[in-house]
Design goal:
187 residues; Rossmann fold; single chain; alpha/beta; 8 strands; 22% strand
Length: 187
């Protein structure tokens, strides 16, 4: 599928440009935006993005958050009660789940082997839909980004407005977008 290879090529050109070191955390986020229908294909070909990153002289660290809800719920002592009465879970989700996901991301961002020259790739954000807002999670981790956080984002971008899975009202974010229709500004 040429779409993935084209996207990886655009990403590779972008990630190979010299990185500005004095940008804010939100500007250290690179959003690789693609149609939700090609999620499985992208995952099967994610090595193209890792290879482009390594060829540009950066190290690659990866986190898949698609299992975050299951992990979070498995740790809860009252999970059986929530499954019996799912409406009761709403408040707990709002209060705790975004922070849980942010902690998982921080766990990678703050590892000793993650440096100012590192790329941390975040996969599986579509699985967070309905449980947490990606905009909120990114705000929580901005201050921990040393190099670049690359978010593989199944959705759309219109004038700096990101829409996860094309379903929610989007949010405006300072991240650098990489799309099939163009690429972001210099790093």
């Amino acid at each position: 599928m040429a779409r993935i290879e084209d996207l990886a090529e655009r990403f590779g050109r972008h990630i190979a440009t010299p990185w500005q070191r004095t940008v804010a955390g939100a500007q250290r986020v690179v959003m690789v935006v693609y149609d939700k229908e090609i999620e499985r294909t992208l995952r099967a070909r994610k090595l193209a993005f890792e290879t482009a990153t390594r060829e540009a002289g950066h190290d690659w660290h990866e986190l898949d958050v698609s299992d975050s809800f299951a992990r979070w719920m498995a740790q809860d002592d009252y999970r059986e009660e929530y499954f019996a009465s799912p409406d009761d879970l709403h408040l707990k989700l709002e209060a705790e789940f975004s922070e849980y996901v942010a902690d998982r991301i921080r766990g990678v961002l703050n590892r000793a082997d993650v440096t100012e020259s590192s790329v941390v790739a975040l996969l599986g954000v579509g699985a967070l839909f309905g449980f947490a807002r990606m905009s909120h999670i990114l705000k929580l981790v901005e201050g921990d980004i040393k190099g670049r956080l690359v978010v593989f984002f199944p959705g759309h971008l219109e004038r700096s407005n990101y829409r996860l899975l094309d379903a929610r009202d989007g949010w405006n974010y300072l991240a650098v977008p990489i799309t099939l229709h163009g690429e972001g500004a210099s790093l």
